Amino acid sequence: MARKQINPNRMELLKLKRQLVTARRGHKLLKDKRDELMRQFLDVIRQNQALRRRVESLLAGASRQMVLARAVMVPQVLETALLAGRASLSLSVDTRNITSVNVPVFTAPFALSGSLENLPYGLASAAGELDQAVTALNQALPAMIELAEVEKTAQLLADEIEKTRRRVNSLEYILIPELKDSIRSITMKMDENERGNLTRLMKVKDMIVSQALEKARLADAAAAREQA
């Protein structure tokens, strides 16, 4: 990588040192943010695994009961029962902040329970297996909504972790080493210039002393000739 051209002066050195301090502070803050995001992400993943097992268990139970209901009920009666009392479902979506990441919060403005009182068809017209299947689905729907919320949260946190990781690596392996290298280069150049200036001053001093000694020698020689 080609080194950026910089002026080796004291003002540039101070500016680079300030940038290095800021970069180190930003690097520490981003590392803390990344660690907190990872902690939140792992909590969400554990919650996601528990919810997924629960949803899969409820859906598997509903599927088994539905297979039994199809086996014992007339298809037309089963279809009529499933189409009875269809209601539209709505879902409100809000957000909450997790370490500067806005994640969704799903809220269903309806209550679903496992009670047989809320079934949309008459109990006398359907088999008990269908009742169990519909009840299991009623229980699974809120869990599925919560699972969708948790999985979206995990996805957003994973994306933010990746972005933060790239920023941390950019600071740690690119920007901070470049700033250190530039500061070292300017310092070495200024030291070299200072040594050069000191060498020139010493040479000038030697020349002045030599001239002064030569003048003194000539003056002494002239005084000696006059006395003679």
Topology:
Layout lengths: L9 H63 L2 H9 L8 E7 L2 E7 L20 H100 L1
Antiparallel strand pairs: 1-2
Describe this structure as you would to a colleague.
- With 228 residues, the protein is mostly helical.
- It has a single domain (10-181), classed as Helix Hairpins, CATH 1.10.287.
- It is 75% helix and 6% strand.
- It has 3 helices and 2 strands.
- The chain has a two-stranded antiparallel ribbon with strand order 1-2.
- Strand 1 (92-98) and strand 2 (101-107) form a beta hairpin.
- Helix 1 runs antiparallel to helix 3 (128-227).
Report a brief summary of the structure.
With 228 residues, this protein is mainly α. Helices cover 75% and strands 6% of the residues. The chain has one domain (10-181): Helix Hairpins (Orthogonal Bundle), CATH 1.10.287.
Compute the number of strand runs.
2
What distance separates the N and C termini? 77 Å
SS content category: mainly alpha
Query: In percent, how much strand structure appears in the residues?
Result: 5-15%
User: Using only CA atoms, what is the Rg?
Assistant: 41 Å
